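Why this split exists: single-chain examples teach little about how molecules sit against one another. For that reason, every record in the complexes split bundles all components of an assembly together and asks for one structure covering all of them. Below is a record exactly as it appears in the raw files.
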Amino acid sequence: MTEALHDEDGSRWAGRDAGQPERQQTVDARTISAAALKLFAERGYRATTMSDIGAAIGIRGPSLYRHVTSKQVLLGGIMVDTMRALIADQQAALDAGGDVPLQLRRIVEAHVRYHAAHREQAFVGNREIENLEQPYRDQVLRLRRTYERGLRTVIERGCAEGDFTVAEPRLASYAILDMGMGVSAWFRPDGPHGAERIAYAYADYAIRMLTGWSSSDGATTADA
Amino acid sequence: MTEALHDEDGSRWAGRDAGQPERQQTVDARTISAAALKLFAERGYRATTMSDIGAAIGIRGPSLYRHVTSKQVLLGGIMVDTMRALIADQQAALDAGGDVPLQLRRIVEAHVRYHAAHREQAFVGNREIENLEQPYRDQVLRLRRTYERGLRTVIERGCAEGDFTVAEPRLASYAILDMGMGVSAWFRPDGPHGAERIAYAYADYAIRMLTGWSSSDGATTADA
DNA sequence: GATCCGAGCTGACGACCATTAGCTTAGAAG
DNA sequence: CTTCTAAGCTAATGGTCGTCAGCTCGGATC
């Protein structure tokens, strides 16, 4: 691990002179969760110590326990909240009505927008599932299945009504969900594409892949 | 961590009676790497101990050091090999010639096929980048950029020659790569879709998203 | 001014882990 | 039979980490 340099900040009580992280205005569960999220996203859950999280908001590791019950609860809260937010956005997209292709566009835009605008939540939510312990893990997996079903159902409806032409709606739904999830891995707020542009472009991609003709040549290139 | 149950196997020298994992025929660097790959894929690098890896092939943790130099080198080897294999497959797809849409199909099929057929390698390769230390990390990131460039170049050529109609080739290349990478997260060899079918379907999706018309209604549903 | 309490802090405690050191054995080599 | 060595093993080393205990300070309350 070459990434050390935690600059522990030797100053104690009587000298709030310098020190990089500088205490937050208020230290509460929400502040801690935000700091934890950032660190989980950039180092991973297991590589992040309670001391790291404390340092990020200007207190020591053990002091965190005045506000949160454990590191695992911190992760669980982040992941459950993330799934709930995704599902709420998806539901809002569905509730907005319109024909099936429009609903699909709204769903995909919501999906991608979330993965860009809340890339840390989404990234942690996807990467740390096996570090989540049991009350949480099943809960998150359940929510995840609900979310997947939302998109798949729209695709299936589109196929039934003749708007879409895919042989395997489930496969197509995975493809669309996964390409959106990927955004959380590379998106940067100061990057060349804004979240809104990406969401729009990806919704286009999704509609295209569901509505195109059967592609060019029918032969697989199987040989490996 | 509820997933314990390592069944340490109390038998020592004089009794090769039972014991779950049963020693492999030969214990060499390749066997160890295979066991490590499996465990890294299902638990993550940091959650896997050298003792776990040893147990998987029927020896103790410290004995591994007769064959490999460190856990980190194990991870580095896996990830570098994975990127090299991906690049080799991609290059083979390009070398097969054909027009741009056919090349694209071959590239995407190779990409998806690898992520299905070698899901553990691909999964670890994507998930453990920040656990990779410095000689390896840069090497893998370099290889990854090379790989990305391969697909992007084909898309750009297709746009220039009028085969494809996407505004942002880079964005489209990310979408295609990410949807393929997602396969390594959910694919199961005994699942309902074979790797070959998935590769073919995904190549279709890719071609559709690059060649479709500009989608239905032009308005973004931006409002959040 | 005395008291109280929330919220820091330091210093354990107990567990785990990668890696090293040094012992031992089985089988090859002579 | 003796010797050597590859490849196991156990035990230790040095480190880290989550969490708990107990101390202390500053400000609010009376």
